[in-house]
Design brief:
Distance between the termini: 45 Å
Structural class: alpha/beta
Mean pLDDT: 86
Helix content: 40-55%
Shape: globular
Order of helices and strands: HHHEEHEHEHEEEHEHEHEHEEHE
Radius of gyration: 22 Å
Number of strands: 13
Length: 316
Amino acid sequence: MDTHRLRYFLRIAEVGSITRAAGLLGIAQPALSRQLQLLEQDLGVALFRRTRRGVELTEAGERLRASTAAPLRQLELAVQYAGSPLARLDRNVRIGLLETTADLLAAPLISTLSTVFPSATFSVSAGSTDQLVEAMLKGAVDVALINPVPDERVFYRELLSEDLVLVGGPDSELTKARPVPFVELVGHQLVIPRSSSGIGNALQNAALRAKMNITHRTTTDSLLVTKRLIEAGILYGVLPLSAIGREVADARLRFAPVTEPTLTQSIGVGATAQLDLPRELMVRLGNTIREEAATQITSGRWRATLLTSEPWHPRA
């Protein structure tokens, strides 16, 4: 099967329009439609159905996207970097991930990095922004996905923003169909992050604007502890959906959106100003993290908003 047709199919699925996909791919719309028709003939199934706004995937199309997007990307990366000096990099690369992103991002990111750097080994650390910044300053982490920090020793480039939700146990009355105003949220007994960045910062700022105090009984920087306390019905918490996907799917946690105001956390790529790695390597690391995050967002697996599509360049 022609891999170009699979790439065309994935781009149409991404934008939901054959016309827009043709423009992005730089080919004529009739030619793209013909390639899609040939792919459907090869597979013997319809991949899209027409809508007022463009096209949407059929069940067969969803299955094809789920099974081909990652392998096709790995193949393209392998071909792209086969002759690159980066492909011969033989060292340990130390990656840091916010604990709330690790469950969603760790596996696809390491898979992609292993293709780009086939001779490298990888160490992955997960924690709060404070913990990851400290690790970077000590030289234990090369590049990390973190919340914004007011530290001139760290170069930070914003990447995405994601909404935070109120999370309760399986017996709570929370539902995604009924948003919870912030003034109602503060009435719940909460477990809150010990760190003042990210989620902690969003809660503090919203409370200050509302001239209210947040009621909490427990602080922790452990995502596992947070989720276990919530699941047991002891406390409520505020987390992004990326951190609770498995538990929600298994009906072990429930959630409700937060309004008035909406709570969000910003996430970006960070590295120390004193770069110990070659600049080309740092740029490729940062951009691989950015590209993988964008892939997860575009696929719908990460409910977040990409804030930049520009390449990542740490300071000289």
